[in-house]
Amino acid sequence: MSSIRKKPSGRYEARYRDPGGRLRGKTFRTKREAQEFLDRTGTSIGDGAWRDPALAKVRLAEYTTLWLENRPELRPRTRELYDGLLRLHIEPHLGDCRFGSLTTAEIRAWHAELLRKGKPGSVTVAKAYRLLRGILNDAVEDGLLVRNPCTIRGAGVERSPERPVASIAQVYGLADAIEDRYRLMVLLGTFCGLRLGELLALRRDRIDVLHRRVIVSEQGQELADGTRHYGPPKTAAGVRTVALPPHLVADVEDHMLRWVGPSPTDLLFTGPKASELYRATFNSAWDRARRAVGMDDFHFHDLPTPATRWQLGRGPAPRS
To answer: How far apart are CA 273 and CA 260, in angstroms?
Structure first.
């Protein structure tokens, strides 16, 4: 399985067969160094820890490029997110690292440097760490690593600052302050617990006023180039039927009469020209509304959901 031979140059070549039966060799200055190498190699082969030395020379950036290309199942927005994390926060620091020298210490130094800069924020750093950990898990399966060096405890946990929760009076204040065509978005976001992406994808036939229900089956994702993509929610649990509170029925009927086209597939919420509603357009209207009611730092996803209203003891009753 292994042997040492002295070459005409006076150096010693250690030869062995890898787990696939291929004959390999490496040259050393002394016979002792060659024997120590064979002992280590034999142990790693026996333990199942041996890796092709050629793979250890692969650069991380080379692998991440192929990793992203070979993930056709990724949603467009997720692919765009991963591409940005790799391009902006991972590859500039670690892209030239080779798998044979990639260590936990190097990962720790990269992670600490991102946090030290303060830009990006800690949430983005956690996303970047989780992405790198997932990629390196696949690298282990592909035989480029013996073990994943991403072992920093808690590094992948997002710790967002606690956000405020609006009262029902504040919700209606925002709904009254925003442009009429977006008023129902605020109310459905609050009383039906719909996310902004889900609201952007709602269509006429997803609203069942007779049975007082909203069917959530899609969400709208907007890419950096302005392309809009409609697809199912991230998880199967995201496809659901939500009860439409009785006090919103009149608001829904009025909105559909004024702003929604007659086709069953017409979008429930559109922009000023009755075309697709882009986030930038809605965000501008939202910014004006929250400033008008003195809630400058309040985000759309801070709207109270049915669960938070219940926890706070606030019922879904309309204003008196």
So the answer is: 12
